Amino acid sequence: AAILLVIxxxxxxxxxxxxxxxxxxxxFAFSQIKDALHPAKPADxxxxxxxxxxxxxxxxxVAQHYPTLRQGPNQVRDLSEALQIGLLKQARAKEEPxxxxxxxxxRLKSPFYVLPPTFFxxxxxxxxxxxxxxxxxxIAAKVRHPVLNKExxxxxxxxxxxxxxxxxDFVNAEDFVRQFxxxxxxxxxxxxxxxxxxxxxxxxxME
Length: 207
Fold this sequence. Notes:
By secondary structure, the protein is α+β, with helices and mostly antiparallel strands. Helix content is 59%, strand content 15%. It is built from 8 helices and 4 strands, in the order H-H-H-H-H-H-H-E-E-E-E-H. The chain has a 4-stranded antiparallel β-sheet. Helix 2 (26-37) runs antiparallel to helix 7 (119-126), helix 4 (51-65) crosses helix 5 and helix 4 (51-65) packs across helix 8 (173-206). The radius of gyration is 23 Å and the shape is elongated. The model has no long low-confidence stretch (mean pLDDT 89).
């Protein structure tokens, strides 16, 4: 009986140690982030995501590709704060799938928005953990924008910090914003072409 108790204690101790080790891992932090995305839980996300750090990376890219936006000596800071507020509002909003327009003209006439209404749900569904080590890991995701009819790739870096594992960098922020700007410009050109074609048709009927 004594030997059995020793064995059970050893097994229990090993299981407890393994559980503790898992809770310190990138995999455990990743699972917490994924759970906090859908439905979105801002407070839980803030534990694992350094929003000030990732929006700073994003703000620098926005300032580069949209130089007149929030222009001034504190442009990056102001953009970063605006991005954080926007993400928080999106997280608190009730998610409703956007109406999918299959017709290109109808899509071009649809109201434009920056973040898809299902942004956090899409993150949760596509999020993957890549190349985890003892101190760092990458997190990848894809988000489709219904109005632009384009898919965007996101790559984030998560580090082991004194406060635990946290997402600290938007690795491909510059590529993300550059692509967004390009697609937005394509949309604007296509919208202008609709107007030009309409005016040409009117002129032709009047001749």
